[in-house]
Design brief:
Layout lengths: L1 E5 L2 H18 L3 E5 L6 H14 L6 E5 L1 E3 L10 H8 L11 E2 L8 H15 L4 E4 L21 E4 L2 H7 L12 E4 L2 H5 L3 E6 L5 H9 L17 E6 H10 L1
Parallel strand pairs: 1-10, 2-3, 2-6, 3-5, 6-9, 9-10
Antiparallel strand pairs: 4-8, 7-8
Helix pairs in contact: 1-2, 7-8
The structure holds 2-phosphoglycolic acid.
Length: 245
């Protein structure tokens, strides 16, 4: 596992954007796995800025996102469909039919999960999967205790995840209880994984991830078994691990 240190959030975001851009420019066909949440916002800002300044094209790129809330319409401002559109897709030249998120409004969610797995298979392996990490160690919405063998599935969000994400909703009671998330084994099939970690609130989980044996109570700890993971972390997130190194 390679760890890239960044001074702060903006430098972390810039480094992540550079990694992504290098792939976008190098590959004639590319599958990007994308994440939502607060952490990747700066990365997307850098990609948009690059597009405006340099016109890097995404015509050859397909994207698959990690997750979507169950019961939230695509057009709803709090959906991850809207998040991706507003932070990235509407600002670059990626064809909309090449961007994919789980349809968490499907009547048959199990069938939708299967369909999403098939879609990822059909696109070929994800070349680069961008990840954030929850304070509880979740990746995607795979909460602690999730089997490392999980594939795309419907999950119940923990109280701590719902509390943390309540800031995006007008009313805390509106925070969905369930989500469709790419599974851990699906994520692990990606050729490269880039994990972004920023802020002192993530220092403890980063310490756990790096020091504790791989276990299902810390979903992100499985990343230690992957042979091409890059962690880009800022100084605040590295605070605890640096005390023992
Ligand atoms: P955050 O979420 O980027 O909003 O901190 C990360 C995650 O839950 O994966």
């Amino acid at each position: 596992m390679e760890i890239i240190e960044a001074k702060n959030y903006d430098e972390m975001s810039e480094k992540a954007a550079q990694l992504i851009l290098a792939k976008v420019k190098q590959e004639s066909s590319l599958v990007l796995g994308l994440a939502t949440g607060g952490t990747p916002v700066g990365t997307y800002e850098h990609l948009v800025k690059d597009y405006q300044e340099n016109g890097t094209s995404y015509q050859h790129v397909h994207t698959v996102n990690l997750d979507e809330y169950v019961g939230v319409e695509k057009e709803n401002p709090t959906s991850y469909h809207t998040y991706m559109k507003e932070h990235l897709f509407q600002h670059i030249d990626i064809p909309s039919q090449q961007t994919h998120l789980p349809n968490a409004m499907a009547n048959d969610l199990q069938a939708e999960c299967q369909k999403y797995e098939e879609l990822i298979e059909k696109l070929g392996r994800i070349d680069l999967q961008l990840l954030g990490i929850g304070v509880n160690g979740h990746i995607g919405f795979n909460e602690p205790g999730t089997s490392f063998a999980s594939t795309t599935n419907v999950v119940e969000l923990t109280a701590s995840t719902r509390e943390k994400n309540a800031c995006y909703f007008d009313n805390p009671f509106d925070v969905p209880t369930h989500a469709v998330t790419m599974g851990i084994s699906t994520i692990m099939k990606s050729k490269q994984i880039v994990l972004l970690v920023s802020g002192k609130q993530k220092a403890q989980i980063l310490f756990k991830l790096l020091t504790e044996p791989t276990n299902e109570q810390v979903p992100a700890s499985i990343l230690k078994q992957h042979d091409h993971v890059v962690i880009i972390a800022d100084q605040e997130a590295l605070m605890e691990i640096k005390q023992i190194r």
